[in-house]
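input
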Amino acid sequence: MTTPAGWYDDGSGSLRWWDGTQWTAHVRTSDDAPVAPERPSVEPVASAVPSPATAPFTPPYTLPSSGVSTERVIAPDLVGAPGGAWGAPAPQPPAPGVSVLGIIGLAVVVVGVVCACIPVISIVGWALLGVGFVLSLVSLFLRGRKWPGITGLVVSAIGALLAFAVSLLLLATVSAPADAAASAEERTDPASIEGAEMVPFAELEVGDCLPFVDYEDTGQIYELPVVPCERPHTDEVYFIFEVDEEAFPGDDALGEAAWDGCASHFDAYVGIAYEDSVLDFYTYQPTETSWARADDRTVQCILYSYEDVTGTLEGAKY
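output
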């Protein structure tokens, strides 16, 4: 049922006019003469309802139709009603603070990243990264704000990648000189080859046999080791000719002329066409400096085999 219009206690010690649906602005004290407007008559109900003159109450309210529950249902209009008795918000729990363990884990991770990038103490840095990662992970399951733990996990992952890259760079920097030194030690000194005689280019002759020598990164070569052809070797001088030019033609043009001149005499020396042979050849030719200073015009054509051979390659036919 609805509460009929009338003067009711509004909870502040005053009587306020209820028009049947909501409070109005008409207020009077208990000493004032009642000047309430005429209220409509209502049907008597079976249950006893206290009279406003004898017992104050808090309108409006409704009774459930089932008749089982007597709990009053307060209308939304009462939120903020005078006296603050209706619709008061529930107290909120205090906001959780920052996780101390998460802060510790983040600090350990930062220190670990710095240490892992320093070669001398990189092992300590990796250990701190692991400890900081575990602390940050555990902090996510504890009360408190989670951002320190999440930040610690992210920083530890990025820091591990950074430290790994620094380690690879350091390893490459250290190993490169060591590899170069080892290659220099392993390279054979041509003068130390057993039975070899160092011969200048100008004194080379057709039929001279040469052992394999790695001249990589050696620079300019002024003489070659010559061994008896009965000894194992890979190279052999098979043709020598002079370039008929007054001015230096340039490295590319001179190289093309040397290649053409050597290729034209391959068949006659080996006894088989170059295209059908398992042998190959290369050339030695003048440099611009030797051309100008030593009047060098000589091109040496050198046969070579991919495997050691004994004896001359002249007429080998393979």
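quick obs: The first strand starts at residue 6 and ends at 9.
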